[in-house]
Structure formats: structure tokens, C-alpha cells
Specification:
The complex is a heterodimer of chains A (191) and B (460).
Chain A lengths: L7 E9 L6 H4 L32 E4 L11 H8 L4 E4 L4 H10 L2 E4 L2 H8 L5 E5 L4 E3 L5 E3 L4 H9 L3 H6 L2 H12 L11
Parallel strand pairs in A: 1-2, 2-3, 3-4
Antiparallel strand pairs in A: 1-5, 5-6, 6-7
Chain B lengths: L6 H8 L1 E3 L7 E4 L2 E4 L5 H10 L9 E4 L13 H17 L3 E2 L9 H7 L8 E4 L13 E4 L2 H10 L1 E4 L3 E8 L8 H12 L7 E6 L1 H4 L3 H9 L8 E3 L4 H7 L8 H12 L11 E6 L6 E3 L7 E3 L9 H11 L14 E4 L7 H11 L9 E4 L4 H9 L2 H8 L2 E2 L20 E4 L14 E4 L2 H10 L11
Parallel strand pairs in B: 3-4, 3-6, 4-5, 6-7, 9-10, 9-12, 10-11, 15-16, 15-18, 16-17, 18-19
Antiparallel strand pairs in B: 1-2, 2-8, 13-14
The chains are: A alpha/beta (191), B alpha/beta (460).
Chain lengths: 191, 460
Amino acid sequence: MRRDPVVRFVGRTAVLPAEDVDTDQIIPARFLKGTTRDGLGAHLFADRTDAPVGTGAAVLVAGRNFGCGSSREHAVWALMGHGFRAVVAPSFADIFFANALQNGLVPVAAPAAACAALGQVPGAVVAVDVQALTLTLPDQSAVAFALPPFARHCLLEGLDDLSFLVSQEPSIAAYERRAADSFFPDRKVTP
Amino acid sequence: MSQPRTLFAKVWDAHVVRAATGDTPAVLYVDLHLLHEVTSPQAFQELRERGLRVRRPERSVATMDHSTPTDGSPPDAQAAAQIAALEQSCREWSIPLYAMGDARQGIVHVVGPEQGLTQPGMTIVCGDSHTSTHGAFGALAFGIGTSQVAQVLATQCLLAEAPRTFAVDVGGLLPEGVTAKDLALALIAQIGAAGATGHVIEYRGPAVEALSMEERMTVCNMSIEAGARAGMVAPDDTTFAYLEGRPQAPRGAQWLSAMERWRGLASDAGARFDTEAALDASSLEPMVTFGTSPGMAVPISGAVPTAGGPALERALLYMGLTAGQRLAGHPIDVVFIGSCTNARLSDLRLAARVFEGRQVARGVRALVVPGSQKVKRDAEAEGLDRLFRAAGAEWREPGCSMCIAMNGDRLEPGQYAVSTSNRNFEGRQGSGGRTFLASPLTAAAAAVTGTISDPRELLQ
């Protein structure tokens, strides 16, 4: 399935000056009772009195270990539903980082000094460049960030993991034949 | 001779369908996919929209736990819709489902092991971060998001970057009154809530070898609270004794050959880890958290730290605590004994040791929520339900309950709880609720004293 490519965009920042922002804070569990991805943006940071919402910002700036805790992809859907296209933080929790990339939300792991500087100027204009892997700061200096090569390719081309995995069917079937009678026997769950 | 390999590397290598290239991550095969009602509906919908089918339904198992009430009341309209969606999807694609009313229903990470679904050497995923629990069996088990749930349903595979490895050596033995939960909290306090980000932890050493399977599950469950992708323990005779005879475990000749394979999974002598940490179990005390991150934990005889920067300041403001304050003696409102961390039979037995012959303190509400229908039956067969009720505690139906506050069980704003669950995040147990994480012994001690209390004083 194709989705909109994410190549480069310019946007204003909103700042949440906190470390270890967990996914329960991003979207509290009581909002996880739906069966679609829709409508979550309205509840982003619902319980935080300092929620950086409603500013029209496209880039959220936060502290280290952003997105820790629960694996809920709803956190990414809520951020995107609210209009965020990137999160800039010194570091991210693993599952959140993966979930963000699955949806085209760019997790920008930027140097702590750059994050701290951005934290002082909410509303600043920055540019996120997935092609060049740079974050351009308000003073027009640029800092580099890293993305896994395949994830970057998918962002640039508007592709996703599922399409790639489906294309691997011959390898998967061959693996199952190989594994069935070797180290790992077939383990069927009986009803 | 080949390079010595870690337990992790042996399991990983055996599941690589297609090796990583410079352009693409490895394609990793998933042996067992666990599903629950909250993180799966959008994945099933994605399959429908894209015209894909569930490739290997017999490698999936679904149950219901997160949004299901545990007080016997019917689910609200939204939860009912989620439950119906899971039932419909499982029917549509012939996925085994342990639904409400099924004797096997319960918290997904309690159900997998107790049914014998979780086995050494497997790759196991679930749309839930506490999937790390299953690593107690020497499986590589980790949480995934809903997009990846769809990928596993459609292809039985994931794209995965190889994580780094982290050896945690635990020497000595846990003293009386100090539990696997305390060990986990002590480790997270030591390495931090992001201390193992990007890593798979292997827990090893005499203290780990001495743990029961249920205790190992508690330790591995909390791996994610240190940021780890997964936690693992090498399978041994304790593992095999637990598994033998479980409904989904191999039998007869297959059981014998499985054990032979599983014995080979342990890390080779000389295997290298990217990161290492050590702690001494014999020096540990019961642990309790004081803040809003699981790493903010101290021994129960200790006090809130005085130096910790803005994160500590914010946490203490939320918790209504002051720097330097002692935790023992702090009054509490609610005690929650349950969750995928501490709702197995041995956890309930620990709590029962403290409740026996005592009463829940005036003004305190205590909930005991078994992790599964089987745990509930086994506990009732021992009379634990009567013991808890006689002490004034509530005895509930299985489910995630007050760990996640999306099923009717929650703290009220400002309330203090001692909880055996895994997260003390702001609002995790209900908006404005304030959580002290601790072991089942410490939680039960809080219930009967009405304050944070050292359970060792009640066990004498």
C-alpha cells in the first residue's frame, strides 16, 4: 500500500520539557477502547496540565527516553492525529521509535544540546529533512540524526514494512519447510 | 570451532528467514503470536482493507484481558465492541480464542506460560510491552505495535534490527521477605528506566537459577521498565519441570527431544555481551518506588532522594512527597495485588502469608485480582479466596484490572496505592492516582497496616 512520502518539511515546534514521557501520558489507557485509529488526536496528553497542544505545531520537542512504557501505537496515532509530523528528543524508547516509523512520524534523535536549545524557544521554525537526515535549527545550523536505512527508504518512497514482508513469501515458505524438521518443530496450537 | 554464542543469538539465528543486508533488516520468523482485544482490531482491519489473510492462524492465540471488567459486571459499550471485534476476527480466520467464560481466559502473559504455549527457544510477540515476560523460558519475546501485529498476522514475520545484548549477573540468594519483584525494581533503580534500551537482557547467576518459573516471569516482565526489548533466562530443569504436562507442551518422545534441544540454548562459555551489570541478591531489601518512573525506587528502609533534577522535582510534586522523606509509614488508600507482573498463584500465596489472621486496615481498599481463570481456580482450591475475603479484601475475576485503568478499576485523583503492577507513571492507575510499586508481600503489608510497611516485620 502506498502512503504519502515523507521527504522534507518545515514546521513550528511545541515543547514538552520532560524526560521519560511515557505512552500513558501521550494517550491515557481510557482512550484505547476504540477499534479504529481515528479520533485520538483530541485526547493527546489528556492528563498533562502543561500539554503542548493546540498550537498548530508540527514538531514536538521533548526530553530523553520519549515514548517509554506501553507498546500502544495509539500514542503515535494521537500525535499524528493532532498534527505532529516529527518528535525531536535526545533518545526514544525502542517500541515507540518503531511504531513512529511504521506510520510516517519521524523520530528525530538529536543531540541533547540541540534539544535543550529548542526547548527554550517554543514556536521556533525547524526543518526535518529525511533525505539529508538533518534537522535545521532556527539559526539555520543543521544537526544530523540517524534512521535505519530501510525505514528511511520507506519514508522517502511512501512504502511500508507489510508490503515488503508480503513480497518475501517464497523465503518464508522455504524457512517453514526448513524449520519444520530441524531445530524447531512445527508447533501448532490445538484448539 | 565456531564463536561462542549467547542464548539470545541462538534463538535469533534460528529464526532468521532472510539475513539483514545493507538495505534491509533481517526477516525474523515468529513462532507464537499472542493477541488481545485492545491492540489488535486495527490490525485485523488493515488485513481486510488490503485483501490479506491470516497466514498461520494456528500460530496465534487470542484472549481478553485489558478492557474487561473484573468485578463481574458486563463490559461497557466500547469494551463490548472491542471484545466483539476480536471474537469476529478470530472466527473469521480460525484463530484460537480464550474468550470470556473460557476456562483458559486471563491476562495474556499469564495464560501463555500456564497453557504451555510459551516454550524455550521460541520467538514470541504480542501487541503488549510486557511480552518480555515469556523470556523467562528462554524464549525471545518482545512487544510490538499494531502495525507489526498486522505484519505478523499476514506473514508470520517481522523486520527486525538485531538488538544488543546485556548480561545481568545476580549473585547470592534473595533473603527471606525479599522477592523477585524487589530484585527487578533494584535492577531498574541501578541501571535506570532507559538503562537497557536497544538491548536484550539475559538474567543469570545463582540468584536467578534459584528462582521459580513464576519468579523468573516477574523479573523478565519488568525488563521493559528498564527499556529492554526483552529479558531472557536460560532454560533448565526448573523450566522443564514447570512445562512438563501442560496442555500445549510436547509429550512423549517429542518432549524428550525438545528437552535435548532446549538444553543447548544456554549461552556458551565465553559468549560476549555488549553490556554487563551485576547485583548481589543477598544484600537486597524489599523495594518500593517513590516517583513516576519504575527506576525511582529505594529500599523500604530508605528515603526519597534529595538530588535528582527537574524529573525528580516533578515526580515528587505529582506524588505529594518531599525530598528526604522516609517512605515507611506513609499512609495509603488502595492496595492492588494483580497484573501480568504479580498475579500468579505464588504471588497470591505470598500475599496470603501476610493477610492470614489479619484485617485490611480501616479506610483501605484492597483488591486481589488473579491473573487467569486457572490461577483463580487453583487459588480457590487452596482456600485463598476465603482467606482474602475474610481479611476484608476484594476477590476479583481475572484481568488487567487496576494496572491499566481502562476497565472500571481505577484510582481516584489523589489516592495513594501500593500496587504489585509494573508502572507508576502519572495517571497509569487512574487520572491523578499515585502509585507505589512493590512486591505482593509489601502490598499485603500495606493493606493490613494502612501504611507503607516492611513485610519482614509481619512475617516473623
